[in-house]
Amino acid sequence: MSALSALPFLKPVHLRSPRSSPGGQRRHTLPASEFRCLSPEDAVSVFEIEREAFISVSGDCPLHLDEIRHFLNLCPELSLGWFEEGRLVAFIIGSLWDQERLSQAALTLHKPQGSAVHIHVLAVHRTVRQQGKGSILMWRYLQYLRCLPFARRALLMCEHFLVPFYQKCGFEALGPCEVTVGDLAFMEMQHPVRGHAFMRRNSGC
C-alpha cells in the first residue's frame, strides 16, 4: 500500500467529473483539488507564493529558497500542498523539533528524534486568499499529523496580529517566543496532536 493510499487526508478530492470528448470517451484531466506532501521539485512554486505573501507584510520570508529545498529534502512528509488543477495554491512546511520551546536553531534544523512538529510557514496564493483556504489546509495538516506515530504536538511562532487566526485553528498561546528575526517579535503557539491509536484504527492510518 502506498503512503498516499494509507493517509485519507492526502487523497485527492475530486470536485468535478472528468470531461468527456465529443465521442463520449473520457479525456484525462488533472484533479480539481488535491492535497499531497511536497517534493524538492515544488520548491520554486512554494517560494514564489511565500515571497509575495510575506515580503509585502514583514519585508522578509520565513524560509528562503535554499531553506525550502533543505526541508523538502530532509522531511517532505512534514509538508502539505494544496493543488488545484495541478497548480499549487497553498502550502505548509514543517520539521521536527526536540525541545519544549522553540529556539533560534529551530529556524534551520530538523531533529529526526523530535516529537514536536515545528510549522515554519503557511502561505496561500494571492489569487485565492480570503476564501478560508488557510484554515482548511491547517485542519487537514493537523489531521494528517495524527496519523504520524511520532508526532505529539505542533508548534509555531507568529506575529501578534495572526494569533486570533491560529487560535481559531485550535492553537493555544505559550507566551512570547525567544526567537527574533530582525526587529520582529513573535508569539509561540502550540496544538496537541492526540488520538493516535484511534485515528490509526478508524481512518486507515
From TrEMBL:
Pfam families: Acetyltransf_1 (PF00583). Its EC number is 2.3.1.87. One of its GO terms (biological process) is circadian rhythm. It is an enzyme of class 2 (transferase). GO terms for cellular component: cytoplasm. It catalyses: a 2-arylethylamine + acetyl-CoA = an N-acetyl-2-arylethylamine + CoA + H(+). Pathway: Aromatic compound metabolism; melatonin biosynthesis; melatonin from serotonin: step 1/2. Residues 33-194 form the N-acetyltransferase domain. Keywords: Acyltransferase, Biological rhythms, Cytoplasm, Melatonin biosynthesis, Phosphoprotein, Transferase. It is found in: Cytoplasm. One of its GO terms (molecular function) is aralkylamine N-acetyltransferase activity. SUPFAM superfamilies: Acyl-CoA N-acyltransferases (Nat). Belongs to the acetyltransferase family. AANAT subfamily. This is Serotonin N-acetyltransferase. It comes from Panurus biarmicus. The lineage of its organism: Eukaryota, Metazoa, Chordata, Craniata, Vertebrata. The gene is Aanat.
